[in-house]
Structure to design on (291 residues):
């Protein structure tokens, strides 16, 4: 009950202070796969001066969920529930994005219950191995990204970025490039994974806009708790992670008056050495309402 009251209080405070609210859902079921990063859901509040608050839950499983035996050589069952505070600092074409995340990995995240309820409701095979999920552990992670808006034309934007994550969830360094093409490009560009502001001197906010985008982000990963297990607890590691991996994204966004809808498709390279040779991909939908 105390946890629920805390969540409701946070949601209520966010609604009172926010200038926009966004709902996220990410899932691999639309790609006819079901495993690894299998789903995520979030609600985000953001102000016009580019501070924000996000509550999110992520669900990770091995590929074979039909056995009660522990999966050796595959990603472990893991759930991650976190509250993120973030801020964009925009100076002309440059944007510095910082965030701090507090959360929990393990049964307390509720990921096993959420996935089981979803599979029961949709008639999908029930996952059998959540007893092997990573243990409860509080988490603290920080992120910093720097990006630059390069307006090649009023309808064409190029955005390179660099970032780092540090904490007991993820330690990595990232380099990426995005491009978007469209009509009446808005100031904010947030293809679900990243939440960046663009060149406020060149771009305006309109009642109608649309654009398509594509990008790739390379990562050098030093530690991934959700793949490797805890640094502070005794959890058997059954995979050998790859140091270098990448994400490729394509998507589209349309905004009409106060409503914005974004669709993103993500393709991920292998994250560990024994990862089965199949596509690692998922889709996401983001719905935003601006007050």
């Amino acid at each position: 009950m105390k946890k629920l009251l805390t969540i409701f209080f946070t949601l209520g405070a966010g609604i009172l202070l926010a200038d926009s609210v966004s709902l996220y859902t990410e899932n691999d079921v639309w790609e006819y796969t079901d495993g690894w990063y299998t789903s995520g859901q979030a609600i985000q509040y953001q102000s016009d001066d580019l501070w924000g608050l996000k509550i999110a839950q992520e669900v990770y499983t091995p590929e074979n969920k039909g056995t009660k035996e522990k999966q050796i050589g595959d990603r472990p069952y893991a759930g991650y529930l976190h509250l993120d505070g973030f801020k964009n600092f925009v100076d002309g074409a440059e944007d510095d994005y910082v965030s701090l995340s507090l959360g929990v990995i393990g049964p307390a995240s509720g990921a096993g219950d959420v996935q089981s309820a979803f599979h029961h409701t949709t008639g999908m095979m029930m996952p059998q191995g959540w007893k092997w999920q990573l243990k409860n552990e509080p988490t603290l992670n920080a992120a910093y990204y720097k990006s630059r808006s390069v307006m090649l034309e009023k309808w064409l934007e190029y955005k390179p970025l660099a970032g780092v994550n540090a904490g007991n969830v993820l330690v990595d360094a990232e380099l990426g490039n995005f491009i978007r093409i469209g009509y009446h490009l808005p100031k904010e560009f947030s293809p679900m994974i990243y939440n960046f502001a663009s060149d406020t001197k060149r771009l305006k906010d309109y009642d109608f806009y649309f654009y398509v985008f594509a990008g790739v982000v390379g990562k050098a990963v030093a530690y991934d708790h959700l793949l490797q297990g805890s640094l502070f607890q005794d959890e058997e590691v059954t995979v050998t992670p790859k140091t270098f991996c990448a994400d490729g994204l394509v998507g589209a966004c349309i905004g009409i008056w106060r409503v914005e809808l974004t669709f993103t498709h993500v393709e991920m390279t292998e994250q560990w050495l024994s990862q089965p040779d199949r596509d690692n991909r998922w889709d996401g939908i983001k719905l935003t309402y601006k007050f």
About this structure: The mean pLDDT is 89. The chain has one domain: 2-290. Residues 2-17 form the longest helix (16 residues).
